[in-house]
Amino acid sequence: MASLGWPFVMVFSFIVFQGLFHFLSARISMLCCKGFRTLTDLQKTEWNSRIVSTFHALVVGILCLYLLWVDDAVNADPVWGDPSLVKLNVGLTAGYLISDLLLILWYWKAIGDKYFVIHHLTALCAYYYVLILSGTQLLQSPPCPILSRKIDASSLLPTLFTQHM
């Protein structure tokens, strides 16, 4: 799967999560939960959204634990190591977030919330940074003139900040 690349994983996860929402979650819920049939359409939409969200959390959580405990490339050098599996995991999550954002906008009456939209958009911006820009320069920003100067106010304040880059 690592050879497929994160764009493929993102598109694939989008399709899988849409399929899970529209087709599988209702069928599985009818078989497993007797009360599912008594829910209103709005409640079923929210139920299906929560099923997809739970499935996503399980898959991504297991992948994160694998990366934390098993993946040698990440554990050998967490900062500069090979992030290919991390990028696939982020691609999987980005596909889910795009899918869920589309569902939130489409089914606004049932699951719409402006804070969900803000959450999804900010997470997608962060994932864009990790996937496209590789996130390697996260801590290196253009130096702020105030912080890059040595502050000495009549010897009351010794050098507070020095910047070594």
Automatic annotation (TrEMBL):
PROSITE patterns: TLC. It is a multi-pass membrane protein. Keywords: Membrane, Transmembrane, Transmembrane helix. Pfam families: TRAM_LAG1_CLN8. The chain crosses the membrane at residues 6-26, 47-69, 89-108, 115-139. The keyword Transmembrane helix applies. GO terms for cellular component: endoplasmic reticulum; membrane. Residues 42-165 form the TLC domain. InterPro entries: TLC-dom (IPR006634), TLCD (IPR050846). GO terms for biological process: lipid homeostasis. It is found in: Membrane. PANTHER family: CT120 PROTEIN, TLC DOMAIN-CONTAINING PROTEIN 4. This is TLC domain containing 4a. The lineage of its organism: Eukaryota, Metazoa, Chordata, Craniata, Vertebrata. The gene is tlcd4a.
